[in-house]
Amino acid sequence: MPLQQEIxxxxxxxxxxxxxxxxxxxxxxxxxxxxxxxxNPNTLTNDPMQLATEGEWRVSIALKMAALTPADIQDMTPVxxxxxxxxxxxxxxxxxxxxxxxxxxxxxxxxATVGLTYLVTNRHVVQPGIEDGKPCKVPLSSFLILNxxxxxxxxxxxxxxxxxxxxxxxxxxxxxxxxLAVGLLPISADEYVFTRISIAQFLTLDxxxxxxxxxxxxxxxxxxxxxxxxxDKEIKSLxxxxxxxxxxxxxxxxLPTTMQRxxxxxxxxxxxxxxGNSGSPVFVDTxxxxxxxxxxxxxxxxxxxxxxxxxxxxFTVTASISATVGENSDVSIVVPAWQILDxxxxxxxxxxxxxxxxxxPELTNTNPSAPKP
Length: 373
Fold this sequence. Notes:
Blueprint: H1 3-19, H2 24-27, H3 32-39, H4 48-65, H5 70-74, H6 78-83, E1 94-98, E2 116-121, H7 123-126, E3 143-148, E4 158-163, E5 170-171, E6 181-184, E7 192-193, E8 196-198, H8 205-209, E9 218-223, E10 241-249, E11 255-256, E12 263-264, E13 267-270, E14 281-285, E15 297-310, E16 315-318, E17 326-336, H9 338-344, H10 347-359
Parallel strand pairs: 1-8
Antiparallel strand pairs: 1-2, 2-6, 3-4, 3-7, 5-6, 9-10, 9-14, 10-13, 11-12, 13-17, 14-15, 15-16, 15-17
């Protein structure tokens, strides 16, 4: 390694371990001698031997300081949490609209556009490692990047990062093969730029049984083009990438899923996806049932992974492309839309809606006996 590169690497380790001194739990992992040296280190020189020794020591100290338990994390302050080096995972999320008969419909507003907003993505996006049966032991936080409308600080649309823990609680399917996460998101259309997919646009299980969508039907999906962004720098605004494909298979039985390859109900698409597309909404054109004129896209489901062709010509279901010899087979895995409906129908999800509307009566009809959905 060139000397200047070695100096840069060691300096980054120095900066990291110095920043982590603000974390009390991290400091308790060190001996008194290690803590003393961390507070009063030797000055770095251009001596390769000294750099190598310092670098090795800093790596070992960083590993000790990062060996935190869930209890350690629970007791941390926001300042301490921000001092920890994050393990970043990216994916796509989208918004759906769930109507509720109790909601007030403002004058001049189409009742079909009034409903509660939910954020949807893959479970492996919000619980990294769950797809391998090894979920992240200490998830610090999840963040959502949305485009904010122009305001006094920005003359045009700009990207804003929100800590999801302050906005939404995740709900998962009772079926552990379903790679979905759904959370109620009370977000204002007056502040942010977004489009919601109404559950009226969902293809249901009955629709699939009635062959409203079959193999060969055209697909569109929209998601994060992660290769376009440097998430360590300020992002001016988010722009999704839109890609196409076709419905490849509507299995009658169970197939391996992205959740530890457990057999479950999935759809297969002839579409090339890559890291960052996890959680992308997929739409299928059903216009052939309307005379074949124009387009009529319905919400089919959510991208959750791909089928990866390994060097030994075997196929592996994976949530994201790993660093191995092989290539994407262009066969992608889609979680059916109706499995989102199943999560929305869970008692805990319904209770959350009840609690929200009870806490905000100004959102509801004036009639206290308005029926529940």
